[in-house]
Amino acid sequence: MKNKLIRLLLTFLVIVVLLAIGWVWITLHWAYSDGERAGYVQKLARKGWLCKTWEGEIAMVTMPGAIPEKFEFSVRDNAVAQQINALAGKRVVLDYKQYKFIPTTCFGETEYFIDAVREVVETPAAPASAPLAPATPQGQLSTPR
């Protein structure tokens, strides 16, 4: 009877652990949404007591003079974190995936995980020019009618 109870408890424990592992795997591999955010990288730091993760934020400015909206994100890949760090202070586009219901902050402090980053290269606007006056052929005078 005692062996049967121990076996039943161990079976239950194994099932609970497998379900927890499955839940973590699903929440980290099945994206709720994905997209892009553009802005200026304000900070990127490796944080955490036990589990170190890259955490950062960008300021998204819609128009000059507007109050920027902050977008906080996490980065799993060290190579992507180094690319973001190299582009700090520049306008960038971050490709992200959002993962809901992650059971612990050990995988990242936010729901938004960055996959890739690219710098925004802005082309200068063409200067506005004054309208051209109709030209008269050289050597001829225009005469009033």
Would you give an account of this structure?
Strands 3-2-1-4-5 form a five-stranded antiparallel sheet. The chain has a domain at 31-119: Beta Barrel (OB fold (Dihydrolipoamide Acetyltransferase, E2P)), CATH 2.40.50.140. The N and C termini lie far apart (122 Å). It contains two helices and five strands. The chain is α+β, with helices and mostly antiparallel strands and 145 residues long. The protein has helices spanning 2-29, 78-86, and strands spanning 33-47, 53-60, 69-75, 91-98, 112-119.
What does the oligomeric state look like here? single chain
Strand order of the largest sheet: 3-2-1-4-5
At the fourth level of CATH, the homologous superfamily of the domain at 31-119 is Nucleic acid-binding proteins
The number of helical runs is 2
> Low-confidence spans: pLDDT under 50, at least 5 residues?
none
CATH topology descriptor of the domain at 31-119 = OB fold (Dihydrolipoamide Acetyltransferase, E2P)
Mean pLDDT: 86
What distance separates the N and C termini? 122 Å
CATH architecture of the domain at 31-119: Beta Barrel
Could you estimate the helical fraction of the residues in percent? Answer: 25-40%
Q: Give, in order, the helices and strands.
A: HEEEHEE
What is the level 1 CATH name of the domain at 31-119?
Mainly Beta
Main sheet summary: 5 strands, antiparallel
Q: How many whole angstroms does the radius of gyration measure?
A: 29 Å
Estimate the global geometry from the Cα principal axes: elongated
What is the strand tally?
5
- Provide the structure class: alpha+beta
